[in-house]
Amino acid sequence: MYLILFGAPGVGKGTQAKILSSTLDLKHISTGDILRTEIASGSDFGIKAKALMDKGELVPDELIADVIRLAINDALNYNGFILDGFPRTVDQAKLLEKIVKELKIPAPALVILKGEDDIIVRRLSKRRQCANCGMIVNLSDLAHKEICPTCKAVDKFIVRKDDKEEVIINRLKVYRAETRPVVAYLEDKLKTFRIDALQPVAVVTQNIMQALK
Ligand SMILES: [Zn+2]
Description:
The chain is α/β, with parallel strands linked by helices.
């Protein structure tokens, strides 16, 4: 099974990708993870990518293409792949089509995790980090809203920079603007499933599996 997973920040895309990849034995290909690993390992690609990112520039498609091709090729050792964070542009989508054709892989399915912006903002704005142990929690999941469930510290929760409301709103705006053309391009060609992502995690997984049957 070959999946491309889309979802706004805060809808649980990473969580679903992890569950699906282990349940279905799919290779989880996350461009974010690949970049971090390559940079940490000091590979040629990592060094080039880091130099660009340090200047605030995007890593160009030609560079990304090679690592994605390798990762997809490796997915042949699994039951398929789940792409997370790629393709991000229409050019990258075309590149993916090319790789899929070259490797004679069946056309992937597009899974879009949906969530309304205002609900995502409300949800993410309840995220806190424990200043004592670093654990990230959501206040709505806690019975005792001032006690860290991991280290039991009291009143140590802080709001991370990424979870400030204006930052969340901006990230959503960027995501929508970036994603719209890619989804429009892909949904004409691929089987596309839209899943309500603001349900409990297990329900979302179940609905995705049901849709893919
Ligand atoms: Zn803690």
